[in-house]
Each structure stands twice: as C-alpha cells, then as structure tokens.
Amino acid sequence: MTNKDISRVKELLASPQKIVIVPHKGPDGDAIGATLALKLFLEAQGHFVKLIAPNEYPDFLKWMPNSEDVLIYEKTQEKCNGHIEEAQLIFTLDFNQLSRAGEMAASLEKASAPFIMIDHHQQPGTYAEVTYSDVTMCSTCQMVYHFIENIGLAEKITPQIATCLYAGIMTDTGSFRYRSTTSLTHRVVADLIEKGADNTSIHENIYDTSSYSQLQLLGCALQNLKVVEDLRTAYITLSQEELDRHNFRKGDTEGFVNYGLSLSGIVFAAIFIENKAENIVKISFRSKGTFSVNDLARKYYHGGGHINAAGGKSDLSLEETVEKFISILPGYKTSLSL
Ligand code: 5GP
Ligand code: MN
C-alpha cells in the first residue's frame, strides 16, 4: 500500500462507520477467510459491519469463526440492498471488477459510499477510492494481514482473525505449494500461528470433512478424465446428471481440476461442470509454468483470474463446450507442446 492510501484508510476508519464487506460470487476459502477476518477486525475497532456474499458458499467453510453472520444476497436481496445504500464505506475483497459480484453488482454500482479494494487478481478495475491490488500476493488473506499491519494494528489480530486468515492463505496456495507462496507468506503464517491459529485443526476442518458421495463424485470425475498428450492438456467433465446422481452440493468439486495437473507431463488442466439451473457450463483452469490461463479464460470464456488459476463460463451445451475447447487448443501449440 502507498503511504497516501494508508493515510486515507486511517481517515476513513477514524470514527465508527457503517461498513459493508463483499467477497466475489462463488466465494472460496480465501474470499470467505478474508471477509470474515476483516469483519472481526473492524468490529473490534467499533465499526458496524455487514458481510454480504453474493451467493452461498461451500459447507466446508462454515466452521469458520463468525460464519453464521454472513448474509447471502441471493436470499435476502431487499435487506442487503438497504445495508448497501446505508453504508458509509464498502470493502470488496478477492475480486476487482464489480461484475464479479453477480446480481449484487447493480446495487454496488449505485452505492454512494467510497470503496476500498483488497485483491490479488490481474487487471484491477477503477471503481475504488483506495485500490490495494498486488498480483504477486498468494492470497487476499495475506493482503488483509498486511493491510492491518500497515495501519499499525497488527497486535489487534485475535486467534479468530488469525484462524480466518490462515485458512484463506492455506486454500489459495494449495497448502503452501504454489509459486506465489513466498518466504514472506511463511513469515505471515508463522505469526498467525503465534497469534492463535491452530494449523492442524484448520487443515482437518477443510480437507478431512468429505462426505461419501463427494468421494464417489471424485471417482466419477476421474473416470471422465481425458488427456490430450501432445498438447500436455488434461480435462474433466461433469454433467448435471452425474452431479445429481452423487447428491452434489456447492463446493463438492473443489480441487478436482488439480488432479489433471497431477499427471506426469501435464501443464494445462480444465474442468467443465454443467449447471442446468443457470444454463451454463462453469469452467476452472489450472496450469504450471508460464502458460497463462488468465489470458485464455478472458479471451474465450468471459472469465479471468491468475496466470496459473482462472475460471470462466460457457453458454453452449456441455458437449459443444468441450468441442470448442478441443478446437482452440491447437492455437496454443507453441506454448503447450514440448
Ligand atoms: P476457481 O477455478 O477455483 O473457481 O477459480 C480460480 C480463480 O479464477 C480464482 O481466483 C477466481 O477468482 C477466478 N475466477 C473463477 N471464475 C471466474 C470468472 O467467471 N470470472 C473471473 N474474472 N474470474 C474467475
Ligand atoms: Mn484469492
């Protein structure tokens, strides 16, 4: 953060404010961890905070401290619109274009309050008065830690806040293994453990709480895995029928896309998940090395993200989506073949 931004943030938070905090649509561990941590921190400073998620988030994140206070815009739209109108300050966390808030975007665009963005995705928008954007950061949770540190209040990080931040850093770094995990990340995480984050329980709460049907769905996804060997690509499909057969619940497919990348020699992995209710196919992309899935998701799938992890969607049928994907792959021959 620049010194100017730090001073402005201190001014904006100088007296108790009505604050709204927003994660992106389809919030993940980093988005929920960062927003809950910031909420707990700001409330302890005397502010009045509403955390509004555009839609539901996975059950495997619901153990997180204060999770019961998350408002879901899709469920209580009118009440949430009231909070957004009344807000004196709005934080957007883990996204950088208002369109990533889904149906909530229209209400955010009308809001009179200034925005503070804290985010690590590529190509930030210009809607915020304070834009704390850093694409080198592994997670928004690490940025929330630095945000609190920058305004001189690191000693106010409680065990609950530390738990939320640890969980988000852990999930967005694939348990501290992706390239964005730096020595600074480990220093932050060490401090969070010292401040009361119980690392073993956090890992167990997130990774060891699968249901039987979720593991069966993983089995189905792995059966569907296809490899395009000469282009070092692997992809998975899951149809609505397959999801229904395995009692699919939000979050059940989290991490499935990574199995493609775990194959020896594969540098590009995708998963295509049919969503008949929204009439779209939701897509996740992952890569290793310099192949930018952010560029590909932006160009072809109304999406974006990071160089090695991005997402998007397709309005075609599942079969047509896969056909189109296969047809665009050769265009990336120089970056994908050996
Ligand atoms: P995931 O594949 O886990 O849903 O998302 C991977 C990354 O891509 C995350 O950082 C997420 O924010 C981003 N992402 C996922 N879906 C979309 C999308 O539809 N649009 C944009 N701009 N980013 C997305
Ligand atoms: Mn993130």
Describe the protein's architecture and organization.
- The chain folds into two domains: 3-207, inorganic pyrophosphatase (n-terminal core), CATH 3.90.1640; 212-337, Diaminopimelate Epimerase, Chain A, domain 1.
- The chain is 39% helix and 18% strand.
- The chain is built from 14 helices and twelve strands.
- It has helices at 3-12, 29-44, 77-86, 105-110, 140-150, 159-172, 183-194, 199-207, 212-223, 240-245, 258-261, 293-300, 318-328, 333-336, and strands at residues 18-23, 48-53, 71-72, 89-93, 115-119, 130-133, 226-228, 233-238, 268-275, 280-287, 304-305, 309-314.
- It has a six-stranded parallel β-sheet, sandwiched between helices. Strands 7-8-9-10-12-11 form a six-stranded mixed β-sheet.
- Helix 6 runs antiparallel to helix 7 (183-194).
- The termini are far apart.
- The chain binds guanosine-5'-monophosphate and manganese (II) ion.
